[in-house]
Specification:
Elements lengths: L1 E5 L6 H13 L10 H10 L3 E8 L2 E11 L3 E4 L11 E2 L7 H8 L3 E8 L9 E11 L4 H11 L1 H18 L2 E4 L5 H17 L9 H12 L6 E9 L2 E10 L3 E9 L8 H15 L4 E3 L7 H5 L2 E11 L3 H22 L1 H24 L14
Parallel strand pairs: 4-6, 11-12
Antiparallel strand pairs: 1-2, 2-3, 3-4, 3-5, 6-13, 7-12, 7-13, 8-9, 9-10, 10-11
Helix pairs in contact: 2-7, 4-5, 10-11
Pfam families: Acetyltransf_6 (PF13480)
InterPro entries: Acyl_CoA_acyltransferase (IPR016181), BioF2-like_GNAT_dom (IPR038740)
Protein name: CelD/BcsL family acetyltransferase involved in cellulose biosynthesis
Length: 376
C-alpha cells in the first residue's frame, strides 16, 4: 500500500466520489462527521486539516482525515466538536497504524469517538462506550412505543407538559430543516447562554466555529446537510437544535432552549417532535452521542459503539503528550461511569457559571475572568 497526504480541498471529484462510495457501503460509517463534505468545510477554515489517502495497487482503499498540530500531535477531524471519527474504508481494511502515523508525520494520535472495532485501530482501543440512538427504521410509532416501555412515567410527564405549553403559551408548531439564518442565531444565542450559565467554555466565542456552522447550515445535498429545527409556542421560539445528517442518520450537535420556558421541559418536548419529523423525512436514526445525560436512557431504542484510545510512535513528544493527557482521560471516564459523580461535577460547573456571571457583571469592561482549566 501507498499513503499520500493532501488537504481535503485538493481531492479531485473522482476521489470525493470514492470517499462517498466507501462511506455508503459500510453502515458503521453512516455519520455526517465522517463525510467528505465535513472535511472540506473544516479545510476551508483550519490550516491544520489533512487527509491520508490510502492506495492499494491502482485504486483508493481508504481515507483518514485528521488534524496535524504542532510537534506532530494528531487529533481527530473537528476535535472536541465532533462525536465520531475514523478510517473511511472497507470494513476489513487493516494497515500498519504506526506506518500511517509516520506517513502523516504524526508522533501521536489520541481518539475518543472512534468507530469501534476498525481493524487498523482496534488494538489501540482502551475503552469502548455506547452511543444511544433513536432507531426510527420501523417508524416513529414503533420508536415511541419503545420510549413508553423504557419509562412510561417520563413520557406521560413530558406529554402533559407539552399540552400545558400549548395551552398556556400558544399552539405548538414545529419547523423542520429551517433555512432561516435568524432562527439559527436565536439557537446559538441560547446555547452560548447555556455554556456560560453552566460553567462551560462558550464554543461560539471562536468565530471559526460560528462560520463552520453557517457553512453547514447553508449546504444541502441528498447525502449531507445541516438540519435546523425549532419548536414554537404561538409565534415564539422555545426550543431548537442544529445537527448534521447523512441520507439516513441525523446526529445531535447543538440543542438549546429559552430558559423562560424551562418549567415546560421544552428541550425534551422538542426531541420528541424532532424524532417524529425526522422519521417523516425518511431518516432511520437520530444519533444522540455518548455522554452522561439521563434523558438519553429513556429516549434510546438502540446503541452504536465508539472507542477511546491512543496510538503513538516512540518520541519525546509522545511521552510528554501521554503525561499530559492520560490522567485527564481517566478522570473523565470515571466521572462518566458514575451518574452520582457526573451530577456533582455538573452542579460544580453550574455553580462556577453563576459566580462567573456575577464577576463579569461587576467587573470593568477590560477585566478578564479566566476559564477553569479543562472546562468544556
Amino acid at each position: 500500500m501507498n499513503i499520500s497526504i493532501v488537504r481535503p480541498g485538493e481531492l479531485g471529484e473522482s476521489e470525493r466520489s470514492r470517499w462517498r462510495a466507501l462511506q455508503k457501503a459500510d453502515p458503521s460509517l453512516d455519520n455526517p462527521f465522517l463525510s467528505v463534505e465535513f472535511a472540506l468545510a473544516m479545510d476551508r477554515l483550519r490550516d491544520y486539516v489533512r487527509v491520508a489517502v490510502i492506495h492499494d495497487g491502482g485504486s483508493i482503499a481508504g481515507f483518514f482525515p485528521y488534524e496535524r498540530h504542532s510537534f506532530g500531535i494528531g487529533k481527530p477531524l473537528g476535535g472536541f466538536l465532533t462525536t465520531c471519527h475514523g478510517l473511511i474504508s472497507a470494513p476489513e481494511l487493516k494497515i500498519d497504524t504506526r506506518a500511517l502515523l509516520r506517513a502523516a508525520k504524526l508522533s501521536v494520535f489520541d481518539f475518543d469517538h472512534m468507530v469501534a472495532g476498525q481493524p487498523t485501530f482496534a488494538a489501540f482501543e482502551t475503552d469502548v462506550r455506547p452511543a444511544p440512538i433513536m432507531d426510527l427504521t420501523a417508524g416513529f410509532d414503533s420508536w415511541i412505543e419503545q420510549v413508553k416501555s423504557n419509562s412510561p412515567k417520563n413520557l406521560k410527564t413530558v406529554r402533559y407538559k407539552e399540552r400545558k405549553l400549548g395551552r398556556e403559551q400558544g399552539d405548538l408548531r414545529f419547523e423542520y430543516a429551517s433555512p432561516d439564518p435568524a432562527v439559527l442565531r436565536t439557537l446559538l444565542n441560547w446555547k452560548s447562554d447555556q455554556y456560560r450559565r453552566t460553567g462551560r467554555v462558550d464554543r461560539f466565542a471562536q468565530p471559526w466555529i460560528v462560520e463552520l456552522i453557517d457553512l453547514m447550515h447553508a449546504g444541502r445535498s441528498d447525502d449531507f446537510a445541516g438540519v435546523l429545527t425549532m419548536l414554537y409556542a404561538g409565534d415564539v421560539p422555545v426550543a431548537g437544535h442544529f445537527g448534521l445528517r447523512t441520507a439516513t442518520t441525523l446526529v445531535g450537535w447543538f440543542p438549546a432552549y429559552d430558559t423562560e420556558f424551562a418549567r415546560y421541559s421544552p428541550g425534551i418536548v422538542h426531541h420528541l417532535q424532532m424524532a417524529e419529523h425526522a422519521a417523516k423525512a425518511g431518516l432511520h436514526a437520530v444519533d444522540m452521542g455518548k455522554g452522561g445525560k439521563e434523558y438519553k436512557d429513556w429516549l434510546k431504542s438502540g446503541v452504536l459503539y465508539v472507542a477511546e484510545g491512543r496510538v503513538s510512535r516512540p518520541s519525546a513528544t509522545a511521552a510528554v503528550h501521554w503525561i499530559g493527557r492520560t490522567p485527564v482521560n481517566k478522570a473523565r471516564t470515571i466521572v462518566l461511569d458514575r451518574p452520582s459523580l457526573y451530577r456533582v461535577a455538573d452542579r460544580v460547573l453550574k455553580g462556577f457559571g453563576r459566580v462567573r456571571t456575577t464577576l463579569q457583571s461587576d467587573s470593568p469592561p477590560d477585566t478578564v475572568v479566566k476559564e477553569p482549566s479543562g472546562a468544556r
